[in-house]
Amino acid sequence: MKIARGRELLTLEQRQDFMQIPEDEWILGTYFTFSKRDLEIVNKRRREENRLGFAVQLAVLRYPGWPYTHIKSIPESVIHYISKQIGATPSSISLYPQRENTLWDHLKELRSEYDFVTFTLREYRIALKHLHQLAFENGDAIHLLHECIDFLRKNKIILPAITTLERMVWEARTMAEKKLFNTVSQSLTNEQKGKLEEIITSQHPSESNKTILGWLKEPPGHPSPETFLKVIERLEYIRGMELETVQISHLHRNRLLQLSRLGSRYEPYAFRDFQENKRYSILTVYLLHLTQELTDKAFEIHDRQILSLLSKGRKAQEEIQKQNGKKLNEKVIHFTNIGQALIKAKKEKLDVFEVLESVIEWNSFVSSVEEAQELARPADFDYIDLLQKRFYSLRKYTPTLLRVLEFHSTKANEPLLQAVEIIRGINESGKRKVPDDSPVDFISKRWKKHLYEDDGTTINRHYYEMAVLTELREHVRAGDVSIVGSRQYRDFEEYLFSEDTWNQTKENTRLSVSLSFEDYMTERTSSLNKRLMWLATNSNKLDGVSLEKGKLSIARLEKDVPEEAKKFSASLYQMLPRIKLTDLLMDIAYITGFHEQFIHASNNRKPDKEETIIIMAALLGMGMNIGLSKMAEATPGLTYKQLANVSQWRMYEDAMNKAQAVLVNFHHKLQLSSYWGDGTTSSSDGMRMQIGVSSLHADANPHYGTGKGATIYRFTSDQFSSYYTKIIHTNSRDAIHVLDGLLHHETDLNIVEH
């Protein structure tokens, strides 16, 4: 069946990959191992080549699913495996295709014996209907082709030419996209459509060289009150379009993410070339996702401002101690001298004042006491009492924060939200006094010490507001308080299936544990008790571990790498041939195929040979932190525009994660890797990188000098493969990001200990 050029989804190499017969043990055991009945049917043929040919036809119909005539090559290992089962000579397969009628007779018999179905227009329509629903959830062509083949194989339908499958996927995607675009577009009012047109055609009033869409896409830059207000300005602009009324909640999350990813990459001129439904749909989904990102960024800036507030308080206290150190030491010496004089006066029953004046003149003593009063800090001092003058720096943005962002919480945290509402009301009314009955129980002791004026009843507004904003930050970060419209800080319930969805899907979860909480806890408790009993029984037999008087002691580990191993390692490295990094990267790409994961975000095509070279150059430029401009200058034949294009359309986060997973999986399967470990344990650590541009993640850290930087938090398995990487704030605690790597890596590693 010939198909239009535009409906071809795969390259020639990709088609070969789909039709290639794998040689791994699992495939051999699952699809190419014959039962007793299979052997009886195969052995009905008298000639050796016919028995082997018939058996091979049966095997390839089971997997990959195409008829024998469609398969261009079958691995020798597969022929040997099949021939061994039926007692035939592998070389006899060369005699099998001599009579074409025999091939078709055997195929007809296989259809009859095993209920294989020939692919006709009826099967095309059935498969297309199945694909249409899947395409509505995920538009990735490769994913849909795999799903299509699995569906046909499961229903014992003999696969047609792969170009026919491509056409079917193309048609399903087109139908799904049309339905998706119509669904979103029809939910929009004419006024909303007009505003969507405006953001891609009109210039921003304050930035004449940018469209409104370009302005909305601008990265936030360094966290500051001014940056916060700019983020909120963009957030309120999108909210003004009232896109939350658009009905997209029933659409699949994966499809919405794909549309949002496209929207983030298209320039305004590209949107103007689209049909209206497509233009409005992609813009709408992208802007709805952008509101979540802007909400998260706004709160992240607040988070950083509170951190900065507390940090400046600590630094102010340290500065006071530095400046007053000499004077304080002077007062300590005076105190010592005066104390000794008083002790002497009491012992020897002398006149106290005479003895005192023998040590220090009275006027000097009075001056010293006055100076000491000025230097004195509260008895239980910390830096909180130094923050009051910082209040007005927070006031530059906090009224906007409380006005624009909406917070929800459980009943336990209602006092905090009541306090937020009180401050919001004070801001709107212009009042200055905090009501005396305002909730304070949720405020920590550190802040409570400074909460009241000298009369003990009047609440100090400055400290109350700073305390509430600090507690709000802590509770949001802990997950106790959620932010409406946020992705990162949304209500925990939103992460879960609805009850109706769960009831529909729970029977097909394929979970290896009981769905009953009681049964699960009973099994887990029993398992834990068994392990504890084993530990109690074998506590004296544990190597390097001792339990004495309720205390656990673990012996110090020996050196991980003996000197002999280091010398041997150095000698092995000397044997390796010298190779250019560029050549090595290209070799690894073609050995592992990791470059095929850089699928174009718009047309879903894998990179060809020329694009692969550009991708490798872009990877080198970013990996060595020299940037794309310098990489283009250093690479003959490549331009900055080419590098920028692949980095924009192919090297998005999801593609990078999948490419990394391919490399890790390939490395994990190598026999050599098993000498270091089995891939079940791992560790993680951060590596700080200096950054020369404004970024929310970039900040100064006194341990690393004065420059600003961010931290690359990397997870490494016991096989020394880096299976997950995340950029985090340089002053953030590593521990809060551990679960991200353990749960969200896409590799085959089964990490059980970290």
TrEMBL record:
Sequence ranges assigned to domain DUF4158 in this UniProt record: 9-172
* Occurrences of domain Tn3 transposase DDE (ranges): 583-754
Which GO molecular function entries does the Swiss-Prot or TrEMBL record give?
DNA binding; transposase activity
The record's annotation in InterPro entries points to:
DUF4158, Tn3-like_transpos, Tn3_Tnp_DDE_dom
Per the record's keyword annotation, is Manganese included, yes or no? no
Q: Keywords in UniProt for this one?
A: DNA recombination, DNA-binding, Transposition
GO biological process per UniProt: DNA transposition
What family does this belong to?
A: Belongs to the transposase 7 family.
* NCBIfam families in UniProt: transpos_Tn3
Mind telling me what this protein is named? TnpA family transposase
Which organism encodes this protein?
Bacillus oleivorans
Organism taxonomic ancestry: Bacteria, Bacillati, Bacillota, Bacilli, Bacillales
